[in-house]
Design goal:
Blueprint lengths: L28 H8 L6 H4 L2 H4 L1 H8 L6 E5 L7 H11 L2 E6 L3 H11 L2 H4 L3 E4 L14 E7 L2 H4 L5 H12 E12 L18 H11 L2 E6 L29 H7 L4 E7 L4
Parallel strand pairs: 1-2, 1-4, 2-3, 4-5
Antiparallel strand pairs: 5-7, 6-7
InterPro entries: S-AdoMet-dep_MeTrfase_Alr7345 (IPR016980), SAM-dependent_MTases_sf (IPR029063)
Keywords: Methyltransferase, Signal, Transferase
GO molecular function, one term: methyltransferase activity
């Protein structure tokens, strides 16, 4: 175990069975599709593929199965269910990085459900603390964050610090993949404070300040039915349904939120 990662004894490495079939072409989209179709995924998570488009999203980010990947704040492990078989098949490494407390507890519970699948997943802290070291500088190929940046905006300076820490842990040429709830550029930026939505320009500014180069955007996770103007913010829509049964059918028909999907690169020296 490397010194900058946190050894969790409950999650000992479990030997995986040796494949008897020919090794697949891990440079193709087929590797991503196979991970999305993994039998270890839960049906409730698979049902959300129609909104989250995981295969298209991961293909856009340009990650490879052999990469050392960090997934930030995975919560209950929706994407962890896909990324784990992806790196297991290609000899890569997945680290899930959470703050101490309930978010770390959620992913710990997920990993404990199936050690045969998740035994090689590493747990780490993000953001780091004085007593819990950072992931080593220039040590990972890709960092992925799904619907997390809006959570970092509530504390002054937290988002800036997060982006700088991400930049530091990535190798030169490494990828930062971002998906988050999107606030249209023509709407009042004050809505970012409590709605859960962020402007693309806000995220791009945070990334640029940390030193990233913008490498492209995709409309894979766009939802033109989302009006972005609900009193209870993005949590009004599925899967949260913050209004309970009030207008539930209408919000269900809208679907999950309109989301930005962005790719950034750490420049090579």
């Amino acid at each position: 175990m490397r010194p900058y990662l946190f050894a969790i004894s409950a999650f000992a490495v479990v030997a995986l069975p040796v494949a008897t079939q020919a090794k697949p072409d891990l440079t193709s989209r087929a590797a991503i599709d196979a991970a999305v179709a993994a039998p270890t995924r839960t049906p409730a998570n698979e049902a959300r593929d129609q909104y989250r488009h995981p295969a298209e999203t991961l293909a856009f980010f340009g990650i490879k199965p052999g990469d050392k990947i960090v997934e930030l704040w995975p919560f209950g492990g929706w994407y962890t269910e896909i990324l784990t078989p992806y790196v297991n098949a290609g000899g890569g490494r997945l680290t899930v990085a959470s703050p101490a407390g309930k978010y770390d507890d959620m992913i710990a519970k997920k990993l404990a459900t199936d050690l045969a699948t998740y035994g090689k997943v590493i747990r780490a802290r993000f953001p780091s603390t004085p007593t819990e070291p950072k992931i080593a500088p220039n040590s990972v190929d890709a960092v992925l964050t799904f619907r997390n940046i809006h959570n970092w905006m509530g504390k002054p300076g937290a988002a800036e610090t997060a982006f700088q820490e991400i930049f530091t842990m990535l190798k030169p040429g490494g990828i930062l993949g971002v998906e988050d709830h999107r606030l249209p550029e023509n709407m009042d930026i004050a809505r970012e404070a409590a709605s859960g939505y962020l402007k693309v320009s806000t995220v791009r500014a945070l990334a640029a300040k940390a030193g990233f180069q913008f490498a492209g955007a995709s409309e894979i996770n766009a939802n033109p039915r989302d009006t972005h103007d609900y009193p209870k913010g993005v949590w009004t829509l599925p899967p949260s349904f913050a209004e309970g049964d009030a207008d539930r059918a209408r919000f269900a028909a809208i679907g999950e939120s309109d989301r930005m999907t962005l790719r950034f690169i750490k420049p090579r020296k």
